[in-house]
Amino acid sequence: EAQVTQNPRYLITVTGKKLTVTCSQNMNHEYMSWYRQDPGLGLRQIYYSMNVEVTDKGDVPEGYKVSRKEKRNFPLILESPSPNQTSLYFCASSFTGGAYSNQPQHFGDGTRLSIL
Amino acid sequence: GQQVMQIPQYQHVQEGEDFTTYCNSSTTLSNIQWYKQRPGGHPVFLIQLVKSGEVKKQKRLTFQFGEAKKNSSLHITATQTTDVGTYFCAGKGNYQLIWGAGTKLIIKP
């Protein structure tokens, strides 16, 4: 089944404790992206990746890191989480992305992070 | 920077009434996509509009893209409980999708 898989689905942790949210897609998509969703603000892009080893900042990259060593995986890393990073996070992928892409995005089920 | 404003933020309707959400961009868009997010779920792609003035229908849902490719709307006729959720537009700007903040459709009991 074609899907985007995020783990964990839920996480409660404390300020400063490094964490990683994994994202994997099995559709051979080139483009992957991370969003955070907060009430009243919709989806805000954190980072995106056009292909392996190519990543770029979205609208709200501060406090986050990403890597794209393989096509299928795009982990989101919070080196020193803070309470303002408490949010619902979505990973998404599409065949292509960027200026010339008309591809729809496929989303994972989301990861709800609570930073105390 | 490029922005897409989506209104209203919430809409309460009685089952059977119509629902409309609007998106307006500060700049011309190359295309616009619409997504639906059910409560507790993730956004799911509904449709994409590319041409100026384009109108597409999916059963009770009608999607429009403005002539200037700066605005779009989604209209649902005779809402049903299965329509509950948040509807997002996402416009393609110069490089990335620009997301509207979403309109939450709430069916009054």
How would you characterize the overall build of this protein?
The complex is a heterodimer of chains A (116) and B (109). By secondary structure, chain A is mostly beta strands. Chain A is 0% helix and 49% strand. Chain A has no helices and eleven strands. Chain A has strands at 4-7, 10-13, 19-25, 31-38, 42-51, 54-57, 65-66, 76-78, 87-94, 106-107, 111-115. By secondary structure, chain B is mostly beta strands. Helices cover 0% and strands 56% of the residues of chain B. In chain B, the strands form two sheets. In chain B, strands 2, 4, 5, 9, 10 and 11 form a six-stranded mixed sheet that branches. Chain B has a five-stranded antiparallel sheet with strand order 1-3-8-7-6, with no helix packed on it. Chain B is globular. The termini of chain B are far apart. Chains A and B meet through β5 and β10 of A and β5 and β9 of B.
Furnish the topology, listing elements before pairings.
The complex is a heterodimer of chains A (116) and B (109).
Chain A: E1 4-7, E2 10-13, E3 19-25, E4 31-38, E5 42-51, E6 54-57, E7 65-66, E8 76-78, E9 87-94, E10 106-107, E11 111-115
Chain B: E1 4-7, E2 10-14, E3 19-25, E4 31-37, E5 44-49, E6 55-58, E7 61-65, E8 71-76, E9 85-92, E10 97-99, E11 103-108
Parallel strand pairs in B: 2-11
Antiparallel strand pairs in B: 1-3, 3-8, 4-5, 4-9, 6-7, 7-8, 9-10, 9-11
